[in-house]
Amino acid sequence: MGIHSSFQAFCLKAVFYCKHTFTTLASFAITALTLCVPAAMADSTTGEQSLSPQTAVEQLDAIGRQEMLIHHLAGVACFVANGIEPLRAKHQALQAHWGLQAAHARLRHGDAVLRLSPLTQPEIIAVLDAMEAHMLSSYRAFNGLMNQRGEALQHMEDLKDLSWTLSTQARGVNAQLRTAHLETGVISQELEQTISALNEMRALSQVISKSFCYSAFGQHPEASLATFQQASERLDALLAKFFEGSEDSGLPKPHAVMAQQLSIVSGEYAKLSPIINATLAEAAASPQYSALMLNQSSKILAELDNSFYLLAAIQ
Q1: Best label site of 54, 116, 135, 244, fewest CB within 10 Å?
Q2: Cα–Cα distance between 210 and 190 in angstroms, integer?
Q3: What is d(CA 290, CA 212) in angstroms, rounded to the nearest whole number?
């Protein structure tokens, strides 16, 4: 199944869920439908639309969102498989799954509302096509887990492995787009570094949650614990750099409004400090902290998303 036929199937599924269900999934389907019409409109346009800094931020947000959602999906799938806050975890898993499909559609087909044309660079399209194949494998593992088919632990591990493959591909597309926008002067070096840091922090917030769960319940706890430590240390460093600015990387001190928003992010992240410190001190992730990790990581993610919306608004 190609990209276009997959997207059509995605929209048809959304219609089905809206017509035949009154579950949480229906709300995600409604959200998905808001993307189907704009994407279809964008797909019918001809020629490239000129990008403003704001629309460039929206475009880079979409690919950055893919990287984050890939980790988020693998993480909440782990919580689902181990019965941690099952209703909340399933809600987040379904939301992540549909969000991943929608972000991919926005990049591949465009978005008339945001005035984004489909990406057309051959090297980027090749990566997006490769990502779609891996996303189908991810969907099978996700679907098996949601419908309790087969071994939950194997579905978990499949999603974890696919998350690293897909996130690497998404990060590569992100880097290519940032470079292209820099070369054409659409965004400045300072804005490019700000977007890069925000995207990385958003992904790291979910790597921390994912690696905690896989350390507590997965097949390779030591490797997941090492990832957990690296991700938490990196997020600490990025937050500090964001507040202070970095002449070496070209990251400016944040706008006053952005600094206020980042203070909220930092405050939510600080609530994870007891879990992070205890996990690293004991060299083990304790299942007793799982519910708090699941809930707090979603709050951190929400505030990082708000940071992106704010960044686009002030351009």
Answers
A1: 244
A2: 30
A3: 8
Contact between 119 and 108 (Cβ < 8 Å): yes
Give per-residue pLDDT as tens, 51-100.
788 888 888 888 898 999 999 999 999 998 899 998 899 899 889 989 88
- Reported as a single tens digit per residue, the pLDDT across 210-224 is 999 999 997 789 999
In a domain, 168, yes or no: yes
- Residue 23 is assigned to a structural domain of this protein: no
CA distance 56 to 83: 40
Collapse the DSSP code of 111 into the 3-class scheme (helix H, G, I; strand E, B; otherwise coil) and give the result.
strand
Tell me, yes or no, whether 236 lies in a domain. Answer: yes
| DSSP SS3 for 286 | coil
How many structural domains does the chain have? 1
CA distances from 57 to 130, 192, 194, 291, 311 (A): 24, 9, 10, 33, 8
Rounded Cα distance between 163 and 78, Å, is 12
306 located within any domain: yes
To the question of pTM greater than 0.90 for the whole model, the response is no
Distance CA 15, CA 151 (A): 30
Distance CA 125, CA 158 (A): 25
> What tokens were used for 191?
């804005």
Closest alpha carbon to 313 in 252, 240, 236, 261: 261
pLDDT of residue 198: 92
Spatial distance between the Cα atoms of 293 and 66, rounded to a whole number of angstroms: 21
What is the distance in angstroms between the CA of the first residue and the CA of the last residue of the chain? Answer: 39
Taken in order 197, 201, 203, 207, the sign of the CA dihedral is positive
pLDDT of residue 49: 47
Q: What is the CATH number of the domain that holds 71?
A: 1.20.1630
Give the domain extent around 176: 48-313
